[in-house]
Amino acid sequence: MHTVGPRRLRLLFALFAVASLILAGRLSYWQTFGRADLLAHATGQVRSDLVIAAQRGDIRDRNGAILATTIELRSLYALPSRIPKADRPRVARDLGILLGRDATPIRAALESGAEWLYIQRWLPEEAANAIAALKVPGLGFQNEPKRLYPNDAIGAAVLGFVNDNGAGVNGVEGYYDAILRGTAGRLVVERDPADRDLAVGLREAVAPRNGADLVLTIDLVAQTAAERELALAMQKEHATSGSILVVDPADGSIRALASAPTYDPAAVRLADPEALRDRAIAWPFEPGSTMKAVTIAAALNEHVVKPTDAYTDVGYTIVGGRKLSNALGKAYGPTTVTQVLERSLNAGAAWVGQKLGAERLIDYFGRFGFGRPTGVDLAGEASGTVRPLAEWYPVDVGTASFGQGMSVSPLQLTMAYAALANGGTLYRPYVVASRRDADGEHRTAPVAVSQPVTAATAATVRGMLTSTVDNGIAHNAAIAGFSVGGKTGTAQIASQDGSYVDDLYVSSFAGFFPADDPRYVVLVVLEKPDSRLLGTLTATDAFKGVAQDILRYARIQPDRRP
Amino acid sequence: MRAASWDLRIFGLAIAAILFCFAIALVYVSETTALSVAGYDVQKLAAQRDELRRQNSLLEVQGARLDSPARIAADAQRLGMVHARYVPVIPAQTLIAKR
User: How far is CA B73 from CA A103, A156, A264, A317, A544, in A?
Assistant: First the structure.
């Protein structure tokens, strides 16, 4: 029987023992003194520290239609060195055809010697699929978030846009940027050489908090009607700018807000910088005759006049030593306060203004929200100007009575008319009805800012404005089967030196319907219409176009015999 | 002779211990590999899920584009239709009174 000698066995044992000791010593070293270095070295090779972008919240209209959303689109990149030289002209040609672009710059990019470059970012799905089917080595896709606006330019002024850095600018995107943006998360993982996560490796994750979704008060149908009518009016009048606002007087919610010139929020780079200004909130203009309703409401509320009070109209009046004339200088003889609105008489408004007095007139301008921002939840609002009493000349009580020497934004004027339409309550306008985030839905509560006039005064003015449409200067705004109230406005445009520019006007119409129980207030403003003094006809046409669409869509029953 | 037999037993035990450790290591490695493979599968499925979500979002946007009143109006215009500026509405009370 063959046996292993004890000496050999001991030698083998000693060998194992020594090897084990060395190994144990080495292991002990790496597990104690050398552990930190080793760990840092190893982790550095496989560890990947990623920022997980938060998804920007969606914006929807009051009925849930998507107005803005963020989607990951595929961006095409190239690793030119991996595309065989001989194939590059063919690849550039194919890409040019599929991307609808000139192939020359694509070929130049492939020949540029760059290690990695984008060929085109945010491809349409069809183009991305077609390029993927080519299976060209050296071409790849990377998903990148892109803000999409499915209705193109519709609602651009109210939505705003997102710039290349992912920050919201203007409109809802700008005002609610922090809420829409969310908070980025973090993911620390170990990855294998193929850049795949290791399931058994280190994993630390802080989940991103996605941005909240916003539901607007905007109604896409009303918005589309407003944009269409504004575009038609602008085209007809070659106006330099314009705005249409639709507001629910019951709570101050904005149902439509159109501004022209406009832009496509998905292609802001191509837009005229002037188009980015939201005329509805950031365009202080001299309101002209639409302010007569405010002056008369103030005078009625202070009981200094009644609708039936009369004066003799001679075509002008003298205030502070200056002659203030009616439009075209026409004299009407005995005229009631109601007829001042029906005929839009400057002399009559100045007569009412003088009875009220400058101090109370300014006070009521403030009560109706003029001279300060409305507080609407949109970025970039202008406040307009109402000069303080100390800066007024004696004539100003007359001119301010018919809307001269002051500036208002279209939104301020709309809200003042909304106050007259709803029984005398001035609401803060708003466009975000609710926001939905991880904690649930948060609804916006309407905010009543003040009660500038009593319900009785508001009802009286509503009746007078209805008469203005039925029997007066705003007859073009009448809609068969429905009661409509409103007032036209024509104002000259002030130049930098304070004088008025000849033959250039701002035409407007502010109205509400149905006049007996107003559901909507609509304001149309056009800057420098070709028709000049007759620009109000186009404004009333636009008002009617919007109103008729809304009446049909909202299924509002006629309140009059057609 | 007895000492040699004892040494042999010790040697056998050492070999057995090494084999046992090897087996344990083998099981550990195979389990880890299986876990890694499962991890890759999870990643593939997660990527598939993300792609389906992306496709779903794209379809939602496409739906919103198709539903857009402005697009419908433009298409209607292309088909030769015109926007009705005025649509007469008959008050419901009138109809009720006639019944």
Answer: 36, 18, 18, 50, 18
Pairs of residues, one from chain A and one from chain B, whose beta carbons lie less than 8 Å apart = 98
- Asked whether A176 and A214 are in contact (CB, 8 A), the reply is yes
* Residues of chain B contacting A151 with CB distance shorter than 8 Å: 64-65, 68, 70-71
Tokens 């004088």, located at residue: A499
d(CA A224, CA B83): 13
Among A3, A65, A143, whose Cβ lies nearest the Cβ of B67? A65
Q: Give me A152's structure tokens.
A: 């193109």
Is A331 a residue whose pLDDT tops 70?
Answer: yes
In this complex, the residue of A71, A224, A227 whose CB is nearest that of residue B58 is A71
Which residues contact residue A308 at a Cβ distance below 8 angstroms, ignoring those fewer than 6 apart?
Answer: A336, A337, A338
Give me the residues paired with residue A456 across strands: none
The residue among A462, A65, A81, A139 whose CA lies nearest residue B72 is: A65
Which of A169, A407, A411, A378 lies closest to A273, judged by CA?
Answer: A169
Rounded-to-integer distance, Cα A61 and Cα A44, Å = 48
- Which residues of chain B neighbour A480 with C-beta distances below 8 Å? 86, 88
Q: In sequence order, what are the beta bridge partners of A526?
A: A242, A507
pTM of the predicted model over 0.90:
no
ipTM of this predicted structure: 0.80
Q: Which residues in A212-231 are b (16+ Cβ under 10 Å) and which e?
A: bbbbbbbbbbbbbbbbbbbb
pLDDT at A1 over 60: no
H or E element in which residue A190 lies: strand A185-190
Cα-Cα end-to-end distance for chain A: 126
List % helix, strand, coil for chain B (3-state, nearest 5): 85, 0, 15
Tell me the pLDDT tens digit for each residue of A361-384: 999 999 999 999 999 999 989 999
A124 touching chain B per CB within 8 A = no
Nearest-CA neighbor of A63 among A221, A246, A250?
Answer: A221
Distance, in Å, from the CA atom of A326 to the CA atom of A335, rounded to the nearest integer, reads: 13
A240: nearest Cα among A219, A259, A214, A217: A259
Amino acid at A450: S
Burial of B4 (C-beta count, 10 Å sphere; 0-12/13-18/19+):
middle
Q: Are A69 and B54 a contacting pair at CB < 8 A?
A: no
Residue A245, SS3 per DSSP:
strand
Bridge partners, A142 (sequence order) = A75
Tokens at A105, concatenated: 């710059």
pLDDT in tens, A448-487: 999 999 999 999 999 999 999 999 999 999 999 999 999 9
Instruction: Give the separation between CA B37 and CA A198, rounded to whole angstroms.
Output: 9
Mutate to test the interface with A, among B51, B89, B93, B96 (most CBs of A within 10 A): B89
The Cα–Cα gap between A356 and A281 comes to 29
